[in-house]
Amino acid sequence: MAGQDPTLSTSHPFYDVARHSILQVAGDDHLGRRIITFSCCRMPPSHQLNHQRLLEYLKFTLDQCVENDYTIVYFHYGLSSQNKPSLGWLQNAYKEFDRKYKKNLKMLYVVHPTSFIKVLWNIFKPLISHKFGKKVTYCSYLSELREHLQCDQLLVPVEVVRYDEKLQNLHKGQLPPPTKTPPPRPPLPTQQFGVSLQYLKDKNQGELIPPVLRSTVTYLRENGLHTEGLFRRSANAQTVRQVQRLFDQGKPVSFADYGDMHLPAVILKTFLRELPQPLLTFQAYEQILEITTPSQLSQQPCATADVESSLRVTRCRQIVQSLPKHNYAVLRYLVGFLHVVSQESIFNKMNSSNLACVFGLNLIWPSQGTASLSALVPLNLFTELLIEYYEKVFSTQENTGEHTPDSVWTEQAVPVTRACEGIGTPQASPHLSSLHVP
């Protein structure tokens, strides 16, 4: 089936619905909010799709995102009398999505709206709160959507693209002439966002830890460990862009002046997301996807859960050890800090699992397209293992020599180690109690 996720397993609890790829996770927006797309053109005729199962699958998908801020892009093209649900189903669906789902939904983009959408809006207007209504943005063309989101990371169905081109051609006489795209400018010497780790190292006297990463981690470690929902919440978009410009221009940034502990958290995630290549590298993507495959972990059919977990941690360590030295050093610095954050979860509510949901797609993504919905499970599991078993994954005791610490990156790791010693964290997990902290 066109558009079906090749990694989707027939054992998926909603395989009958998921195989149509109506719902897809399309990475994050510029503020780090997870994007979910709903494509009407992929809905089969009503007699081939159980709409109640579709509703349950929609809730199943959103349940993986609703604890954090998220965005929905609704592609309306393709909805017809053959496949559209009944008004009763739509009304029931709106009631099913209680405050848990609506609270962290920050934007709902309706692409290619028709008169049917306007009719629906009038029908449901008495049920829709004014606050929720302000989250809805209509986009008549994909070009309007691009003003809000990076469409190159969106999974836009081919049918929607063709329909958009058709609309553009019909209204060509009314559209302004296309503007000429200026050639890309070389990055500033002080540039922090959108440049490679090597570029940052070369421009910062050989420092392996990028200044923006060290600045955000230091501030959050000293001031934000008890902030509830740290890394889950978004910050003011205009302020985020302003702070990015200051960093890129090499100007000092005082996060204390902004009075928002979520601002440095968003800046940190934005830095990771705008790297030309993910911190875990494109090469590691397929290896990470295999972290949940039993055949990759053990050939022993009777292996216990503890053995399987131990083998997964060992596999995580092997993948991390295969990273380029610079990526390894930066990853160790970052994950060491996230491990400290997770140890304060009694205050910040961000344990290793919650942090993994936030950071999974900020650390690794495929070289082509975006990570599929089914890929989120192994990506998040891998990230959770990195954070939970930080001391073992990054321990140098069993090192093969590829990342034997030298005087440069040992120095970079010192702040993380000192932070672990100095913040009064709870007692370590029994799984970690016997591990050496590098």
Q: N-to-C terminal Cα separation, in Å?
A: 49 Å
Global mean pLDDT: 80
Order of helices and strands: HEEHEHHEHHEHHHHHHHHHHHHHHH
Shape type: globular
Radius of gyration: 23 Å
Largest sheet: 5 strands, mixed
Written overview of the protein:
The protein has 438 residues and is of the alpha/beta class. The chain contains 21 helices and five strands. Strands 1-2-3-4-5 form a five-stranded mixed β-sheet. The N and C termini lie far apart (49 Å).
Considering the chains and any ligands shown, give keywords for the structure:
21 helices, 46% helix, alpha/beta, five-stranded mixed β-sheet, disordered C terminus, 438 residues, globular
How would you summarize this macromolecular structure in one to three sentences?
The protein has 438 residues and is α/β, with parallel strands linked by helices.
Compile the SSE list and pairings.
Layout: H1 15-18, E1 23-28, E2 34-39, H2 51-62, E3 70-75, H3 87-96, H4 99-103, E4 105-111, H5 115-124, H6 130-133, E5 136-139, H7 142-146, H8 158-170, H9 197-203, H10 211-223, H11 237-248, H12 262-273, H13 285-289, H14 294-297, H15 305-321, H16 325-343, H17 345-348, H18 352-363, H19 376-388, H20 390-393, H21 407-422
Parallel strand pairs: 2-3, 3-4, 4-5
Antiparallel strand pairs: 1-2
